[in-house]
Each structure stands twice: as C-alpha cells, then as structure tokens.
C-alpha cells in the first residue's frame, strides 16, 4: 500500500511542476525559452518521423518495381531441372505461391554498332498468365506475343535500349560466354537477335535484363529439355521471411532462393542508409533536449525564493528535484505529442504537399529524365513512430537531471536572505 504522505507529496510535486510549465510568468524570457523547448522537440520529432517515412516509401517503391521483373523466388538445381512440370505442380500447392513458371538464365553481351553491354538473359514462356501480368504491363513499345519460338526475338529494358541506341526492329549481336573451336581458330558463340519490344519498370534492372522465349534460350545455352529452374510468383512477395521459414520439401540437389537473397546487397545498403540518416537526424532531438536544460536552469534561478519557502515548509531536496523533473518531463511530453501528431500528418500528405508546390512554383523536384521515381513516396510505420517518441521522452527525462539536482541543492537561507 502506498504511504499517504508520499502520495500527497508526489501529487504536490506534479501540481507545482505543471503549474510552473503552463501558468503565466513574470519572466517573459523564461516563458519564451520554455515554449521554444517544446517547439524544438516537436520539430525534431516531426522531422525524424517524416524523413523515416519517406525513406520507407522509397525502399518499398524500389522493391515493388524490382519485384515486377525479377523472380520473387526461384527453385534451381546445379545441373538444371529436367522434370520441371511435376516439380511445378508440387510447388504450386505451397502456401503463398501463386504460380511456378520454368525459366532459363544465362549471361551474355549485346553489341550494336560498336556499343556493347553485358546483360542477364532470361528465357521465359511468354504465353503464361503470370509472365503476361508481370512483364506485359510494363512494355513501352512492342508486344509480348512477339517472343515466339525459333524467332530469337528479345525484350530490352529502356535504359539498356538507350545505352545501345536501339529500337524495335533493330538486330543486335548476342555474344555468349562460350567458345567454338574450328580449323580456322577459336571464336566466341554469337547469335543475331531482333529487338521486339522495350519495357520499363523505373528501376535499375531496366539496364541489365533481356527476355526471350524459353525455347530459344534453351537452344542458345544447349540445355536440351532442361531448364535452369522455376520462377515462383508469390501472393505476398514481401513476406519472404515467413515463406523461407516454412517447410518446403525439395529434392536434395535443389535450392530455394528468394528475391532478398539475390538483391541482398542493394537492400542491405538501403537499410544501412536509413539507420545512418535516422541516427544523424536524432541529433535534432538532442539539441531540443539541451533547450530543456537551458529552460530549467533559468526556471531554477527564477524560482529560488519559491524553492526556499518549500524547503522551510518541510520539503526535502528530493521533493524539490522532483518538481523540476516533472516540469522538464512535461515539456518533453508535450513536444513529443505535438511532433508525433504533426509528423504523422505530414508523412501521410507530404506527397500531395510537394505536388502543390511544384504546380504553384512551376518546377519539378524529380526530373523524369534523371530519376526513376518522379514523386515522393511515403510509408508510415508504427515502429518508427514508437522509437522516435521513446527517444524524445528519454532524452527529455535525461535533460532534467542536472537542473533538478541543482534545484534540490539551493540553500533556503541564502535564497531568502535578500528578499
């Protein structure tokens, strides 16, 4: 049971601390500093939440665009997969799997009029509904049906087409990483292919991937009836951790690889960038906490007489310290609440705000000719909001320690001597 005296003392400390914060003061400068402390904390919290939400939005947008082209997951074998129809039927029954499509992957180099570019070659069945949905909707020119067997037509990304300066109908040379030994010498394997279409996802994969018919890729790579593996289209491609942790029975020589494994370097760099930016912007909240220190130090100097009166009435140094700890804590709490509300609101509508200013000022922040993403994506996450709010409260409480400790050590006699 809580002691009645302690309860009353704690309630009195809370009342006085709140009174010091919200009541009118004779010292306007101290009042301004306290208001500035609340404003600085609110701006710091709001800025950090908004920036983290924008970075989450960019991360999600990049992943979504890349996942429209690269496989969500693959099942491969070192020597290729021959009985892939039965394997595809088994995998299609796995949870979260929408479709399992055979594919053939290889490396090559495209060349056209002296320009050369290394590419990742993907052979797919263009008639499959999953391929039509993922690749067909991103075609700028050409048709997916142009990928017909034995025609050796290819689809290029827009960036790759620009690098080679080719268009639909142009014939380019595809050089494979194999050599042919003839009586006349040793030559690389070269095949002339025709550009049948250009696609664009708005991601870096537009500069390195080439699609062709599954049969043509098999003939070029001499796989016969085998395929490299199966492309898995997941219902929710972002839940790869749960997908990998589930029990997936596979033959011993087969491997399951997700999109996160294949693009781990890129997404690890994005995650690290978010952590570094968040850490640097946390300094804004630290500066706001120093404002709380300054406001409390001024408040202690202003309230020396009140402190002396409370001491003579029986308040202990701990009670006096608690008053200013409560005042500083309330300052930080109000600032954090205002910052969280403002940050969440700004994070949800910052894209529309940017569009408004672009129209009013007649400029484009993200030039379509230079950037893949031409708008400001945001994704507000509760965990980020919780971490930022907790950081603000902790720093606010730590900032009260020195002023509160100093207030508890004010000698009553010295404070009242010249009053």
What labels would you give this structure?
single chain, about 425 residues, alpha+beta, six-stranded mixed β-barrel, about 20% strand
Write up this protein:
The protein is elongated. It has 14 helices and ten strands. A six-stranded mixed beta barrel has the order 2-3-8-5-7-6, surrounded by four helices. The model has no long low-confidence stretch (mean pLDDT 79). The chain starts with a helix and ends with a helix. Helix content is 53%, strand content 21%. With 419 residues, the protein is of the alpha+beta class. α2 packs antiparallel against α12, α9 runs parallel beside α12 (382-399) and α9 runs parallel beside α13. It has two domains: 4-64 and 267-417, no CATH class; 71-262, no CATH class. It has helices spanning 4-22, 28-66, 84-91, 129-135, 158-164, 214-221, 240-245, 259-262, 264-302, 304-312, 317-361, 382-399, 401-408, 412-417; strands at residues 73-81, 97-112, 115-124, 139-142, 153-157, 171-182, 185-199, 209-213, 227-234, 254-258.
């Amino acid at each position: 049971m809580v002691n009645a005296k302690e309860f009353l003392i704690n309630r009195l400390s809370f009342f006085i601390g709140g009174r010091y914060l919200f009541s009118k003061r004779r010292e306007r400068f101290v009042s301004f500093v306290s208001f500035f402390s609340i404003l600085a904390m609110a701006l710091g919290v709001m800025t950090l939440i908004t920036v983290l939400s924008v970075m989450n939005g960019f991360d999600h947008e990049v992943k979504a665009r890349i996942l429209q082209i690269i496989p969500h997951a693959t099942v491969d074998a070192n020597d290729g997969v021959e009985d892939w129809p039965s394997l595809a039927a088994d995998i299609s029954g796995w949870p979260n799997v929408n479709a399992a499509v055979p594919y053939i992957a290889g490396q090559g180099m495209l060349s056209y009029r002296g320009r050369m570019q290394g590419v990742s070659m993907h052979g797919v069945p263009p008639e499959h509904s999953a391929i039509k949905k993922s690749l067909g909707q991103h075609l700028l020119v050409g048709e997916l049906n142009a990928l017909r067997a034995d025609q050796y037509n290819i689809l290029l990304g827009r960036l790759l087409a620009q690098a080679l300066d080719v268009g639909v109908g142009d014939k380019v040379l595809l050089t494979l990483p194999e050599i042919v030994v003839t009586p006349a010498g040793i030559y690389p394997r070269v095949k002339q292919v025709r550009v049948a279409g250009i696609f664009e996802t708005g991601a870096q994969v537009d500069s390195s991937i080439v699609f062709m018919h599954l049969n043509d890729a098999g003939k070029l790579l001499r796989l016969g009836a085998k395929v490299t593996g199966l492309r898995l289209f997941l219902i929710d491609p972002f839940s790869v951790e749960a997908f990998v942790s589930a029990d997936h029975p596979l033959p011993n020589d087969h491997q399951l690889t997700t999109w996160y494994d294949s693009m781990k370097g890129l997404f690890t760099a994005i995650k690290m960038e978010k952590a570094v930016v968040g850490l640097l912007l946390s300094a804004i909240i630290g500066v706001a906490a120093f404002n709380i220190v300054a406001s409390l130090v001024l408040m202690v100097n202003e309230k020396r007489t009140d402190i002396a009166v409370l001491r003579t009435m029986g308040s202990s140094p701990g009670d006096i310290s608690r008053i200013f700890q409560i005042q500083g804590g309330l300052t930080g709490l109000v600032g954090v609440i205002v910052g969280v509300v403002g940050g969440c609101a700004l994070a949800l509508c910052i894209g529309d705000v940017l569009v408004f200013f672009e129209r009013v000022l007649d400029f484009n922040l993200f030039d379509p000719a230079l950037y893949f993403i031409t708008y400001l994506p945001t994704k507000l996450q509760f965990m980020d909001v919780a971490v930022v709010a907790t950081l603000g409260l902790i720093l606010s409480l730590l900032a009260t320690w020195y002023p509160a400790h100093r207030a508890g050590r004010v000698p009553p006699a010295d404070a009242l001597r010249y009053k």
